[in-house]
Fold:
Amino acid sequence: MKKTSFLTLGIETSCDDTSVAIVNEKGQVLAIANASQDEEHELYGGIVPEIASRNHSVFLLPLIDRVLKEAGMTPEQLNGIAVTNRPGLVGALIVGLVTAKTLSQSWGIPYLGVNHLEGHLLAPFLRDDAYGPPLDFTYPYVGLAISGGHTSLYYIEGLGRYHLLGATKDDAAGEAFDKFAKMVGLGFPGGSRVDKAAKLGDRTAFDFPRSMIKENNLDMSFSGLKSAAHRLVESLGPDEVQSRLNDLCASYQEAIIDVLMAKLDRARNLKKITKVILTGGVSANSRLRERAEKWAQAEKLQLVIPPIRYCTDNGAMIALAGSLRMQEGQFSPLSLSPLPQVLPDDFIQVSRDS
Ligand code: KG4
Ligand code: ZN
Structure:
């Protein structure tokens, strides 16, 4: 192994996915292992923080053992550990953070607490045998991060220089998908199930609101859409909801996508930029991908959507973000705490006050 290599173990436990990866200095993923808890949370119709923490404590060390074996490595070959310490469910973050601190001490290597959202924004730079970013893909670019917990638009100028252009004022887009799925009896997590049903439905069958779509800013809102869906579902009654499920899903999904696409287009026009990324679990949505790809083609933009394994919460994106910073000499003290929110310096505030 060359002296210039920098091998990072990434640990992600901010929500309900336990994920661990080893990534080299070029963003190449040498091994990745995940444990999903969807089935357990589905019983409760949503994520139960205590169950998430408990499962992380069961899954994490065996996953670390697995990636080391898969990469054919021993801990002595690692140069650093990157761990999500913010934002997220604090009890879930604690499991990853304490594990990273302990391994850092016992293996005698440094560690760094990483902003989970920075991981999502840098995910396009990951690479493996089946994926790599286009050769000419570089900073700056506009990024739409869409997941169960976040829906925000950023201008990514370079490492550590992320301008927050706008965000949802209430529910995240993934949350809007999940709550709707629950309402119409599709279960949890609902995004992929709504996506599937929508393929067979009529997108114009029901007229859902597109809140803030025409407002001259980059903020979004999905709680009005959720309330409108709730009223409609009540008025239709269970039998009609079931018989028109595909139309309901297609119409509801289109309302979310119309808002996301309108704001993304506004953001890239504002920044006069031709490089755009989608990241976060909702970017797995097939209709959103189709719309975004058509838009990029028509507008002559370079659109990068990392593969789903790097769009959803994963240890590789955390390893990459941590690796780039640790290679610049940034490390965390043993006293670092887990935080439910980002730090004031994590993002350069542009249009939002909070
Ligand atoms: O990034 P992620 O795995 O976890 C966080 O929330 O951070 O995103 C999960 C979210 C869930 O809300 C899920 O319903 C949504 O992504 N999702 C989808 C699809 N697949 C996952 N939403 C719409 N269409 C999909 N195909
Ligand atoms: Zn996430």
